[in-house]
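2024-03-11 09:14:02 INFO receiving multi-entity request
2024-03-11 09:14:02 INFO entity count = two
2024-03-11 09:14:03 INFO echoing inputs for audit
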Amino acid sequence: GQNIDQPTEMTATEGAIVQINCTYQTSGFNGLFWYQQHAGEAPTFLSYNVLDGLEEKGRFSSFLSRSKGYSYLLLKELQMKDSASYLCAGGSSNDYKLSFGAGTTVTVRA
Amino acid sequence: EAQVTQNPRYLITVTGKKLTVTCSQNMNHEYMSWYRQDPGLGLRQIYYSMNVEVTDKGDVPEGYKVSRKEKRNFPLILESPSPNQTSLYFCASSPGGYHGYTFGSGTRLTVV
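2024-03-11 09:21:47 INFO inference complete, emitting structure
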């Protein structure tokens, strides 16, 4: 595995912004994925970064710094339905092989 | 509908009784993978496959076998299940690279 680290829990208010950080070991790393997983459901793919910089997809953005072994997922204009676990995953072997962090549970409060 | 289908959804079995969890995808994806998910440990990759007859070990392959005889199917075999294999299992497929994996609905396995 790649020792992916991310915070266990975060809480934010509806309409606010939350940033979920993820750090990883850079050895053997290729690309960085973010997934969303609602309780009792399968993970769903959110974003992929292979180059340094910010990728924006609607209310969700993901950032990567390869030299620092650091990524974050930014969730804007939070909605109640965004309450879920967010999983950071590092890809190796051309991204066939993924190592996941334990996930960050985000709770959105009214 | 494009999907990854795994069966069964729930399974309770006894120690040592061989079982197979099936996985099938209808998206013609090259890559398939099996994960297990445990509280506090996140998703851990068991095996992955890059194409028919090409498989490789993930981070936790001990006690599991896989085969990829056809592109669409990637069954997970537990020859002699033990209680420490009680977990939530996900099968996933991907066309490769930046597309990410599409996950099946999961199989909750309990070994007593």
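2024-03-11 09:21:48 INFO post-check: The radius of gyration of chain B is 13 Å.
2024-03-11 09:21:48 INFO post-check: The mean pLDDT of chain B is 95.
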